[in-house]
Predict the structure.
Amino acid sequence: MVEVWLPYGSTEVVARIQYENLMSIYRGELVKSVKNFDKSINQSIDNALGVRLEDLVRNNKKAVIIVEEPQSRLLRQASTIIRSRIMELGVLPKNVLTVWGVLNQLSDPEKLVYDTNGDIKELHHDFTSNLTRLGKSTFRKKVEVNKAIATSNLRITVSEVRPHPLTGYTGGGRAILSVSGLSTMKRIISKINNPKVRAGVTHNNPVFESINELGEIASINFSLNIVPNMERKLVAAYAGDFEESFFNASKLSRSISEAKIEKQSDIVLVSAGGLPWDSNLASALNAVDMVQPAVKDNGIIILLAECLNGHGSETLMNLITKYDSSKDIFRSIRKQYSLGAEVAYRYMRCLEKNQITLVATLPNYYSQKNLRLTTADTINEALETALKKTGRRSKVAVFPQGSNTIPLLNM
């Protein structure tokens, strides 16, 4: 018997698996974090790739700092550092605005934060208002972004870079997507049915290529891309040119997150990774999408996610309740996109190939009836039920950090 401890909210639970059933435990690369966060961020700015911040500030006196994920403690800390650096170089505090992006329904649209002089210091983006249009994209239409982007001549992005099931990785142009209008989001998300749209893939990934184009259209002057480890602590930071800094960060992120697997298993046991990844179901479902390549068709995925904040997306609930297939959801996205619709599409696509069993604090009413999930009270109960269905000789693959692990199947 092997005991495997898995993250669950702010704690851990143990899964007990017979030796003959355990295929392997896939963790990605265990990398130590830096000792001094502030020092590492400042060093990355001092050694910026392709462009120097002081040269940019010399010619641009109104700055906007675009932060991709307002919930990220790392990004909040990093954006504070780069804000201070800009002001040290001579930009007046009233001319430095931080715009917090919105790519989920947990953000606080249009919330303003003022400094001691009464000037706006921070703005939480609203994807339905306060927008303006920038140059045409390959869609032959102009893209909509927050007005603060267009009215600033020094445009800086701050992002974490880690695997993402749609864009390949977070960071890069995804920061601009987070401060875009709903029409621009719709045109990009409408490409999610392409087989190249998956975690760790940027080459020929139409979603990644589209958001990368957003960065070019928005004329991003400077980027700060930080790479966390599985514990969401800083490993490295890359600053400077928009594309070059992202390329270096994504290369490191790939080396941390990839896990080679010899063959697909009958059962995948995956933890979303504890907080913040399993704070709600919409967030935790990323882990299912990430690890699906590791399980056989018609196999079982057991998702461990506490979900203390509930399902996390009204759009997810509405679309899964209303439609019977991923094709139907995709058609609805092309007609009328709502924030979070891509989660419903990806989830339904997984459900069409595999049984998903959820171990969480969500009421069974939501899980079984609305979301069509099998549920279990404990991880070991879920394992026992799965083995009865797939057979006692079935193999189990375990992913303790499913939201940040890319399974690579050796062909």
User: Anything to note?
Assistant: DSSP finds 14 helices and 21 strands in the chain.
